[in-house]
Design goal:
Helix content is 30%, strand content 19%. Strand 3 and strand 4 form a beta hairpin. This is peptidylprolyl isomerase.
């Protein structure tokens, strides 16, 4: 066999192995949210595919870059995603902007408003369809069981919380009265302190921060997402020769 043939065979083997490495895709989509108050890492739920796919598409288009957190209520949530906020004047009323379509509700019983989750904002439409771009990050507060009992009787009109809800709201905290009314489509893996920092800012009579808090977002590339999931599983990240070759031959979108 000639030396040229050996090189061709070797190259084919490298490309094949690289293809095998690059064929893997992350289980979830991840978004890094950078704000004036810190950075968050968001995992999007696969149980809410319409919201997931819409959010990923908007992030990749740069839709959220330089938008404001235009509605902030301490111990409740921080809201953004109104495109009108990008060049908004001081004291301008915000909250009505967004694409000219809505997302069908994907409300899941097990996806609750614990602290650090992301929910889709909406108006009072009876189908509970979501705004295509506006979202909120839940801060909320930690409840006692007695406090949850009172919430069930008064605000939730007798509807009972599950054991899982009670466990979350008496430890992590959140906003239980929103459950069943808005679509929750992801949760923060990092950055709860950033939500707390945003929630603490001074606001005007419309709950808009007096000093602007802006955001930018990026979807984690495939390799970074895969290594994030490997780390969560107790495995070392992949960064060897074949991995780097695979990344050259495969898209980092997923």
């Amino acid at each position: 066999m000639s030396q040229i043939s050996r090189k061709i065979i070797l190259l084919c083997c490298v490309v094949f192995l690289a293809g095998q490495v690059g064929a893997k895709t992350p289980i979830f989509h991840y978004v890094r949210i950078t704000t004036d108050k810190g950075t968050c890492l968001l995992k999007l739920y696969n149980e809410t595919p319409k919201h997931r796919d819409n959010f990923v598409r908007l992030v990749r288009e740069g839709y959220y870059d330089s938008l404001l957190f235009h509605r902030v209520i301490d111990h409740f949530m921080v809201q953004g995603g109104d495109p009108d906020s990008r060049h908004a004047a001081e004291k301008q009323a915000l909250g009505n902007g967004g694409p000219d379509y809505t997302i069908p509700a994907e409300i899941q019983e097990g996806l609750i408003h614990k602290k650090g989750t992301i929910g889709a904002a909406r108006d009072d439409n009876p189908a509970k369809q979501s705004s295509a771009s506006q979202f909120y990050l839940v801060q909320g507060r930690v409840f006692t069981n007695a406090g949850l009992d009172s919430l069930e009787q008064i605000r939730m009109k007798g509807k009972k919380l599950t054991a899982a809800q009670r466990q979350a709201y008496t430890t992590i905290g959140g906003t239980p009265h929103l459950d069943g009314n808005y679509t929750v489509f992801g949760e923060l893996l990092q950055g709860l302190e950033t939500v707390d920092s945003i929630a603490e800012v001074k606001t005007d009579e419309r709950d808009r921060p007096i000093s602007n808090v802006r955001m930018s977002m990026v979807v984690l590339p495939k390799r970074e997402a895969l290594n994030l999931e490997r780390k969560a599983a107790g495995l070392a990240p992949k960064s060897g020769f074949f991995t780097k070759i695979a990344d050259l031959f495969s898209s980092q979108k997923y």
